Amino acid sequence: MNDATDSSTVPAPQGACRNCGTPLLGEHCYACGQPVKGLMRPLGNLFGDILDSVFDLDLRVFRTIGPLFAKPGFLSREYFAGRQIRYVTPFRLFFLLAVVTFFVAQLTTDGPNFNIGGEADGIAAATTVSEVEKRRDAALAQLAEGKQKMIGTPAATGIIGMEVGEQAVREEADRRIKQLQGAQAKGEPPPAPDKDGNHGLNFKVNGKPWNAETNPLDTWLPAFGDRWFNKQLERSNENIQRLQNDKSAFKDAVLSAVPSTLFVLVPIFALMLKLAYLFKRRLYMEHLVIALHSHAFLCLDLLLLLLVLALQSAVAPEAGVLHGLLGLIEKALLVWMPVYLLLMQKRVYGQGWPMTLLKYFVLGTCYTVLLSFAIVASMAIGLVAM
Fold first, then answer.
1. Is residue 90 part of a domain?
2. Number of compact structural domains in the chain
């Protein structure tokens, strides 16, 4: 009787494995591991399997996104409790949201507007000192307006670049004023714009302007290292001048580099959590799960913020109620970021509020400094790669 009952619970074989001939009891052969489904099937089914393998796109996405946004620490605690299969895995969740967020950022944000000199209306073409000052002030105002629009969006990674652009504007204006004053002192007409002038990188090596050929950067590195650095500087110099005609190239290159930068920062942030909660005796992998979930939330919040900003720009200011409502949602999404991370840290680690607040501010300060260096690195990579 028991044998009959036991045999009835065993699934009936579904044929034999085409690789080793073992009777099949599921979607994979338990002897050799070969899947029942091969590549010889409709393209639509194959495409669905690829999406599932790479992004884990199934019903778990809908069970994961809501708690990720609205329940700080919930997914991490569920993961530690062993309830894992019902949600998208932390790495896939972060990977998917990072790729989607910064792809949308490239589509919805504008690049900085660089207009330093060399164009018909640029500073280098001005013929009087007052005209130089007028064009300089206009360029600085334009850059300041661009910086203001970047605040609170992923394009904020380019603010440092805008400040570099402001310094370049001032240097170009000073250079042109000296040219005009020198010509006036000699009784000569205003000099023509310097077509061969360096409107890109302006720094000196051994007291002379840097030049990849005549005055290259010479460091403690071997000769091939110096050649590589000078090559990157030369390429960056060419790209800075190219920004005057293609203002979105730098923005696209930086935003393309940001996801890779975040992938490097996540394990570093997990190590910072490990050190901050050393006496909690948690494994490093637990802190890594928390880091992945927190960064996935930041990407999701940024994605929603981008969509709200795009919708707000499409709605005329005259539509007062809707425009104002979108503005409130934008502010709420910005405020929710630090509040969420604080609540997540409190709920996951379970310490009292004084220690949680102390560690939150210490971790936040250290990570902000680290993120600043990462942003500069992303800008440097973007400037070379654009």
1. no
2. 3
